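Before surveying the methods themselves, we first show a specimen of the format, giving the amino acid sequence and backbone structure tokens:

:::
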Amino acid sequence: MPTEKNWVVYLVRCSDKSLYCGITNDLIKRLEAHNLGKGAKYTRSRVPVRLVGTSFKMTRSSALKLEHRIKKIPAEKKLTKLINRREHPEMVNTQIMQQIQKEIQSAVNSIQQLTDSVGNIITQVEKLAQTDASKTTTAKRDPTRKKVVIKDGVVEKIKRVPATQIVYDIIRKSTQGMDTAALMKTTGFNQRKIHNITFRLKKKGRIMGVGRGVYRKA
């Protein structure tokens, strides 16, 4: 049974401008491996690599012999040696490079589409985060309390009542006192805000504590 002639010797130009010679029976796959850092030990630290020449198809034994001869000659003569052995038209470099370039462009397009999709997702997430933040701010906003000033039967002005005054008025009107939970429910203020307001009112002597978290007018 005849030996399959499907091996080629190839030359690639590394990122440091040096040449690397190797053999393969799948040129495209081998070039991809080199550029992924999974090829020969020599090229792993010299990626990316670029194909500069190939031989005609031959047996593995013949490819190994040609590779050995090419590796022994100076770099400037390697390509000439390889080209002189390219006697069959089925291995034309331009055809190989066109196929590789098509695959690279396809990969670039896929990466660009993925980048655009990720960018759109990030934009949508940011919009949702801004919406949620706006809702949270609205939910935590203090309830509006306004005082209408009437003079001679005519509304003279409308002014906002301070939070401290709101809490004090509620406590003042309660004969048995108001606890923190009741104040939170009535005013819509959170526990920390109620604590800060009652602390200031107690310090000023306007209210007094009559139990744990229970306040009454002083």
